């Protein structure tokens, strides 16, 4: 949030009025008496942060949570409490994550809900395996690229898919994701997982400061979109969320959502995708002239996928989900940065930030041209982290100046050959058996498309805006296809070197990687950039878990995007802009500018961070949460 505006010292004329007491129906005009008084307003100094005790963790604004049995970190205190309550009743980390996610759909609809998609990474201690789940939905099968292009022509000068309205809506994958995760790892009935959200939706749930701040942007987005014709229907969203928008301290009720969740709890996933709820969504889109139909819901399936992992500094291994997400960009960046002694450069130095930004630009060039639904693109995600590839790409980096032209490093097939700023919530939960869940869920831009089906209490996502309109692009809009996705959960392993010594592992046997860190960060294209910064803070800059999230961040914006045309020399030549948070030293900003970097302070989209880490020495969990948001970390 921006700091409140401070008035400089000035002399103001203040009007004090007293109104006549005549009754409103007297027919006599109200009389106003105006008294002018001169008041001097002194310049105000905004409050600064207090000083922490000298524990060695100077950046963190709070202490990380240490919990011997279980831990959770979410973007709302009630969601964290809900997760812990489920764990204490015998639920698994997956049960707790589902319960927390359902609660967040109620209290944080600015970032997520059952109208959106879900991705998750789960460490299962029983099988000693890391599982990935892609719960993203597909475009309507009955529409065509020409249909979507017509919407783009009407409202976006033909350049991109409209951000609001039916053209951007894809099938919501979250409910299916909940049941897939629960079928594999749940311990409690899923109705028990959904009960807290159902109860609070009926009785009322508290809305805190930051969520209410973003919530109030809704009418400013959707009302003009409706008036222009881009958004086909607005009354349902207005009635559900904006009558009026909540302020901090509002107790928000959503009985329609309670009814929808109750039907899901009773009837399972098919109630949403094949039953009465699917029929109601079908009827709604037919009524407003949209594209989704019952058949799109009924045919939806999510997929279990293998996470893609890359080592960093030998003792760490970071794992992300493959495309259609952007997670591999973080792995590419880390592989490029291994050549640099970032520790010696120092956190927040010009050299360190320069190396990171240029690595981001190279990784995102590949992201723009090759990250797409692999069922259509035919691109093997492993090519992006093949041995030596990113090390060679890093050779293009010059710390003294930005690269003038950044191209993708691989030749990607076109659609013909291969059939071809987001708001999100991230949460993580770990249970006493060692299961760790990294889950991210989103409606994409703002609260979503602006469309709320009759009587259902949730908004449909606008994720389909992230398709390209270029027929040659691997990410081109096609029927029944998943769009490029920004949301990415992450997981990391670490070698427990002291533990290896205790277990007397032979010197010739490599110390194995152990599950270490479940983490993520919200914020569109900031997410892989944020993942990298968190890992660097922990590994290269020796920060604690809370400190690693509280430390000032940078964000680079610019270059080619997966929504651009496949051949676009203008975006390849765009060096972009680097936004710095205020905690980056002014000297660093000056030095970056001297090197030719376009820098701005302090508008970085820092995202929203949550993490749970295993302390190998004690076996306890350490949990941290984003100080820039409303959430908390907790455990027991």
UniProtKB/TrEMBL annotation:
The leader peptide range reads 1-20
Q: Which GO terms describe its molecular function?
A: transferase activity
Source domain of life is: Bacteria
Pfam families, per database record: G_glu_transpept (PF01019)
Keywords attached to this entry:
Signal, Transferase
Q: Which PROSITE patterns match?
A: PROKAR_LIPOPROTEIN (PS51257)
Q: Does the keyword Acetylation apply?
A: no
InterPro entries in UniProt? GGT-like_enzyme (IPR052896), GGT_lsub (IPR043138), GGT_ssub_C (IPR043137), Ntn_hydrolases_N (IPR029055)
Q: Does the keyword Iron apply?
A: no
PANTHER family associated with the record: GAMMA-GLUTAMYLTRANSPEPTIDASE (AFU_ORTHOLOGUE AFUA_4G13580)
Name of this chain's protein: Gamma-glutamyltransferase
Q: Which organism is it from?
A: Hyphomonas adhaerens MHS-3
* Organism lineage: Bacteria, Pseudomonadati, Pseudomonadota, Alphaproteobacteria, Hyphomonadales
């Amino acid at each position: 949030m921006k700091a409140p505006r401070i008035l400089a010292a000035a002399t103001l004329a203040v009007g004090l009025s007293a109104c006549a007491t005549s009754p409103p129906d007297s027919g006599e005009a109200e009389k106003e008496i105006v008294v002018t008084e001169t008041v001097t307003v002194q310049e105000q100094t905004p409050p600064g942060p207090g000083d922490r005790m000298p524990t060695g963790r100077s950046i963190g604004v709070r202490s990380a949570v240490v919990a011997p049995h279980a831990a959770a970190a979410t973007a709302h205190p009630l969601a964290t409490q809900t997760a812990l309550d489920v764990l204490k009743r015998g639920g698994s980390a997956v049960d707790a994550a589902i319960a927390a996610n359902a609660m967040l759909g109620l209290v944080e609809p600015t970032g997520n809900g059952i109208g959106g998609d879900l991705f998750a990474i789960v460490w299962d201690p029983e099988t000693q395996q890391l599982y990935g789940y892609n719960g993203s939905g597909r475009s309507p099968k009955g529409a065509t690229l020409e249909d979507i292009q017509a919407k783009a022509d009407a409202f976006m000068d033909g350049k991109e898919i409209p951000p609001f309205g039916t053209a951007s809506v894809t099938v919501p994958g979250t409910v299916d994701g909940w049941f897939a995760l629960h079928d594999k790892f749940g311990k409690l009935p899923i109705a028990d997982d959904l009960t807290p959200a159902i109860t609070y939706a009926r009785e009322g749930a508290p809305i805190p400061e930051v969520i209410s701040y973003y919530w109030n942007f809704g009418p400013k987005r959707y009302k003009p979109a409706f008036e222009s014709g881009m958004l086909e229907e607005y009354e349902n969203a207005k009635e559900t969320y904006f009558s009026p928008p909540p302020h901090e301290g509002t107790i928000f009720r959503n009985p329609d959502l309670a009814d929808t969740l109750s039907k899901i709890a009773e009837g399972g996933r098919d109630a949403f995708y094949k039953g009465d709820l699917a029929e109601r969504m079908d009827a709604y889109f037919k009524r407003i002239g949209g594209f989704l139909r019952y058949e799109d819901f009924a045919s939806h399936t999510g997929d279990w996928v293998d996470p893609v992992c890359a080592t960093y500094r030998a003792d760490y291994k970071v794992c992300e989900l493959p495309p259609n997400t952007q997670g591999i960009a973080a792995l590419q960046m880390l592989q490029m940065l291994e050549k640099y002694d970032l520790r010696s450069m120092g956190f927040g130095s010009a050299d360190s930030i320069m190396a990171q930004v240029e690595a981001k630009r190279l990784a995102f060039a590949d992201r723009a041209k090759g990250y797409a639904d692999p069922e259509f693109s035919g691109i093997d995600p492993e090519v992006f982290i093949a041995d030596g590839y990113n090390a060679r790409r890093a050779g293009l980096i010059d710390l003294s100046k930005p690269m003038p032209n950044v191209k993708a490093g691989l030749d990607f097939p076109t659609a013909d050959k291969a059939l071809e700023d987001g708001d999100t919530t991230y949460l993580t939960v770990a249970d006493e058996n060692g299961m760790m869940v990294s889950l991210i869920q989103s409606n994409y831009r703002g609260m979503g498309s602006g469309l709320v089906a009759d009587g259902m209490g949730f908004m449909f996502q606008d994720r389909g805006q992230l398709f390209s309109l270029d027929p040659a692009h691997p990410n081109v809009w096609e029927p029944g296809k998943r769009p490029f996705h920004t949301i990415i959960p992450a997981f990391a392993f670490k070698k427990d070197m002291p533990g290896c010594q205790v277990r007397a592992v032979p010197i010739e046997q490599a110390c194995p990687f152990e599950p270490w860190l479940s983490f993520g960060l919200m914020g569109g294209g900031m997410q892989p950039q944020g993942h990298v910064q968190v890992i660097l803070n922990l590994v290269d800059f020796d920060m604690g878990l809370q400190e690693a999230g509280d430390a000032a961040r940078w964000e680079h914006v610019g270059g080619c995007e997966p929504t651009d045309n496949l051949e676009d020399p203008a975006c390849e030549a765009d060096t972009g802009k680097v936004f710095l948070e205020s905690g980056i030293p002014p000297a660093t900003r000056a030095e970056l500018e001297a090197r030719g970097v376009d820098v701005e302070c302090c508008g970085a989209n820092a995202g929203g961070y949550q993490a749970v880490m295993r302390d190998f020495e004690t076996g306890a969990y350490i949990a941290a949460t984003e100080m820039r948001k409303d959430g908390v970390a907790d455990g027991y």
